[in-house]
Amino acid sequence: MTSDVEEPGAAPPAPPAQAEAVFGDSLPKARRYAELLADDGVRRGLIGPREVPRLWERHLINCAVVEELIPEGAEVVDIGSGAGLPGLVLGMMRPDIRMVLLEPLLRRTVFLDEAVEILELSNVVVRRGRAEEAHGQLLTDFVTARAVAPLPRLAGWALPLLRKGGSLLALKGEQAEAELAAGREDVSQMRPSVSDVIRVGRGKVDPATTVVRVTVTSDGGPPASAGSQKARGGKKKRGRKR
Ligand SMILES: C[S@@+](CC[C@H](N)C(=O)[O-])C[C@H]1O[C@@H](n2cnc3c(N)ncnc32)[C@H](O)[C@@H]1O
């Protein structure tokens, strides 16, 4: 009987035609990363085996197209990187940016450290921890995040990490507009900001990647902990999983 579920150690699918245009010179690194995800990533439970056949469109290219929102030389913190999406992809495409992959779970940071070394990404560092623990320690131009938390909780974690004029770029699905409409007031109470929804990668990935962008318009700003339970992270602290 055949199955569409890939076994650990399976080769990733070949990159689709548009991968060359999206990744350019970094395509060899993207191919190597796809191999790592399909093999070690699945074996170690970092991505599901069902993701392997759709690694390129749904994961690598979906994340890569966000690069157009990041200006040259920017500092970026990717919170909740997991297996490296989107932070590792953006770091490999853009040697001009400085990328911090912020991830609390040890087995994920071990994989990320190995991937950074194998892909020789001297502009990417891995830091183990929760975003809210980095408040007052990290200050950056952009925070990226995909599939980490609902917008108000994510903003509570991300906005204190941003310099004035910096942006949270939250990769969201089809419900992005509704999520922003529901969360906009909470978010602007945390720190003065302007928010919009942008679609990037039209013609390169279908559906285009939907990004909720929250740009902070004030210096510093009160720490998120001055606000609501949502801003503090919304959940009681639990022991750190490994
Ligand atoms: C569903 S995974 C998404 C991983 C990756 N961004 C992706 O799109 O494949 C959510 C990740 O967020 C991390 N995470 C959860 N709470 C966090 C926090 N407070 N700060 C930073 N990362 C967190 C988890 O450990 C996990 O790796």
TrEMBL record:
InterPro entries: rRNA_ssu_MeTfrase_G, SAM-dependent_MTases_sf. HAMAP family: 16SrRNA_methyltr_G (MF_00074). It comes from Nocardiopsis tropica. Residues 215-242 are annotated as: Disordered. It comes from the Bacteria. S-adenosyl-L-methionine binds at G80, L85, A131, E132, R146. Belongs to the methyltransferase superfamily. RNA methyltransferase RsmG family. Keywords: Cytoplasm, Methyltransferase, rRNA processing, S-adenosyl-L-methionine, Transferase. Its main location: cytoplasm. One of its GO terms (molecular function) is methyltransferase activity. Pfam families: GidB. It is found in: Cytoplasm. NCBIfam families: rsmG_gidB. Coiled coil: none annotated. Its EC number is 2.1.1.-. Residues 232-242 have a biased composition (Basic residues). It is an enzyme of class 2 (transferase). One of its GO terms (biological process) is methylation. Specifically methylates the N7 position of a guanine in 16S rRNA. This is Ribosomal RNA small subunit methyltransferase G.
